[in-house]
Amino acid sequence: MKMLMVKVLSDVVQICNPMSLTLPVMRRVCDLVSGSLGYCCEGQLGSDSPFSATSAEKRCQTPNATRRVALGPTLLLLLALPLYAHMVSMSTGDLRVEGAKATYELRMPLYEVAHIADPEKTIFEHIKFEGARLIDHKCAPDSTALVCTAHYEFQTAPEIISAEVTFHTVTVPNHVHVLRAFRSDKSDQAVFDISGSKADIRFRPPTGLEVAVTQMGGGVQRAFGGMAQLLFLFALALAARSVKEWAALTFMFVVGQSVAVLIGYQPNPKFIEAAAALTVAYLAVEILLLPEAGSRWIVVGVLGFFQGLGLTEFVAGSGYNPAYVIGGASLAQAVILILLWLVTRQLNKVAMITRALAGLLLGTGLLWFALRLRG
């Protein structure tokens, strides 16, 4: 953890180092972030920056200068730590049952196991099938994923398989594992994440209601899937200047997200996360530089499309009905946005607070973008 904090803090400093300030736009961005946070940035910014030299000296000479020096980087550090977890973190597994024997095949992205000393041993310590004995297992990487195969034996041919998967404890907290099980012409599947690590696999066709509830539940879980999604929703709520605009922004976000899922475009996960980071940063720029700009709903529709790429990845990996997933995710996001709006409408009454929060969002978005570009 100590090394992780040092790495993140180093990235925070690099965002505003002299090399990154060769462009006036980047200088202005760093000025906005540091200025809105009250950061004592003399020596960090260029000499011609409006937040350096004289203005910086004035801030640094205040009684609270010592605390303010650390405020900006500390808050960015705390916000950035959860973003080390990938926005798109999902693995899939197929369990094929023949009588009392079963073969399990796992595919997990290589970037999710890069930090694990002995991934083959660790992975199979975190997946269990009740009543089954692990006979053997092996893992080998291909171009994008670690592919593992294991053989299990049950005492008798199972009618119901109780599975426990805790991959989120060894990868990242928002990791999702989709398990598909097959037995002759029957199949079932379950989703495991931090909100639910146990499930029963039943080899019978699910009812229509069960399908709808399960798949909408998957959408709800993805809405709460991680810091990245919640950060964007907070930025969206902060960008709304009235109830009418909040409703328009929420609607266009859902539309943009839905279009992304229905199109089914699946770019590289690194692109998805970099794009998601920039959506947060751009909304912050809108708040800081364009406080009176109109047609913000159009911008949010486009940003919603990029946010929806993560949901598209989940739909493709799980095989769920896009309509159910979109419905569940949109319902949960609407509830979250209502709660956030009740908070941000009070915060927006004080311009300084709004600018400080926007500065934090901008700095975090840029840092997140830099971290993902560096892999």
Walk me through what this model shows.
The chain has 375 residues and is an alpha+beta fold. It folds into 3 domains: 83 residues, no CATH class; 116 residues; 147 residues, no CATH class. The strands form 2 sheets. It has a 6-stranded mixed β-sheet with strand order 4-5-2-1-7-8, with helices on both faces. A 3-stranded antiparallel β-sheet has the order 3-6-9. Strand 4 and strand 5 form a beta hairpin. Helix 8 crosses helix 12. The protein is elongated. It starts with a helix and ends with a helix. The N terminus is likely disordered.
Concise overview:
By secondary structure, this protein is α+β, with helices and mostly antiparallel strands. It has helices spanning 2-15, 24-37, 53-60, 65-80, 110-113, 119-125, 208-223, 227-239, 243-263, 269-289, 296-318, 322-347, 351-373; strands at residues 90-98, 101-109, 127-129, 132-141, 145-154, 160-165, 176-183, 186-192, 198-202.
Overall 3D shape: elongated
Mean pLDDT: 78
> What percent of residues adopt helix (DSSP H or I)?
40-55%
β-strand percent reads 15-25%
The total of beta strands comes to 9
DSSP summary: helix tally: 13
Strands across the major sheet, in which order?
Answer: 4-5-2-1-7-8
Q: Please compute the radius of gyration using only Cα atoms.
A: 23 Å
Number of domains: 3
Order of SSEs, N→C? HHHHEEHHEEEEEEEHHHHHHH
Separation of the first and last Cα atoms: 18 Å
Oligomeric form of this entry?
Answer: single chain
The unreliable regions are 1-85
Largest sheet: 6 strands, mixed
Query: What structural class is derived from the secondary structure elements?
Result: alpha+beta
